[in-house]
Amino acid sequence: MEEKWTYGLWGAAGGAVALTIIGLSSGMLVTSGKAETMAQERASATLVAERTPICVKNFMAASDAKAKLAELKAITSSYTRESFVRDGKWAIFNNESNYRVVDSCTDALYKL
């Protein structure tokens, strides 16, 4: 009888370890650190999605928007284009600028 319990407990322990390994590697289970990272990535994506149209609207509301847009499209370096948008302060929200919003806004303006 004792031998049955020993094999049963070893089988249960092995099954629990296998289930944990499979669950973590497949993404069905996540650690708290991974969950926090995923939440931050989603929040950042939401922030970019909400603020990019506002940045474009701010840019287009400027009195010399057509000239500025032509100037933006004439810039060949993506880094310089982002600096142009950042320096123009079209992507400033609550006195701060998010580089992902600036990047997204620059891409959206460049495609106009």
Description:
- The protein is mainly α.
- The protein has two domains: 1-30; 40-110, no CATH class.
- 79% of the residues lie in helices and 4% in strands.
- It contains five helices and two strands; from the N terminus they run ααααββα.
- The chain has helices spanning 2-26, 32-61, 65-74, 78-88, 99-110, and strands spanning 92-93, 96-97.
- Strands 1-2 form a two-stranded antiparallel ribbon.
- α2 packs across α5 (99-110).
- The relative contact order is 0.11.
- The mean pLDDT is 90.
Question: Main traits of this protein?
Answer:
single chain; 112 residues; mainly alpha; 4% strand; two-stranded antiparallel sheet
> Largest sheet, if any?
2 strands, antiparallel
Helix content: over 70%
* Strand order in the sheet with the most strands: 1-2
| Count of spatially separate domains | 2
SSE topology string = HHHHEEH
* Low-pLDDT runs: none
Number of DSSP-assigned strands: 2
Number of helices: 5
Query: What's the overall average pLDDT, rounded?
Result: 90
Write the layout of secondary structure elements.
Elements: H1 2-26, H2 32-61, H3 65-74, H4 78-88, E1 92-93, E2 96-97, H5 99-110
Helix pairs in contact: 2-5, 4-5
Concise overview:
With about 110 residues, the protein is mainly alpha-helical. Helices cover about 80% and strands about 5% of the residues.
